[in-house]
Design goal:
The chain is mostly helical. The protein has helices at residues 2-13, 21-29, 42-46, 57-70. α1 runs antiparallel to α2 (21-29). The radius of gyration is 15 Å and the shape is globular.
Amino acid sequence: REIYKEELKKYLNSKTNVLCDDCKRRANYNPLRFFDCKNESDETKDRAPQISEFLCDDCKKHFYEVISYTKGLPSLKTKGL
């Protein structure tokens, strides 16, 4: 997780021209909070490094197993949540 946070910090620091003031501040002390921001564009969030790219082999296997269990379940968006 620490490696991911460092990569996310690098990404956010390269985007200071488009980030809100809160995200600029968060980039250095708690970069994961960037994803909570309501001001940032979906494009900026979508282009950010994905934590799944930084998982160890065992964690990656577990992650995809969990994902496979959720296939076929209705999404919260389709339920209006």
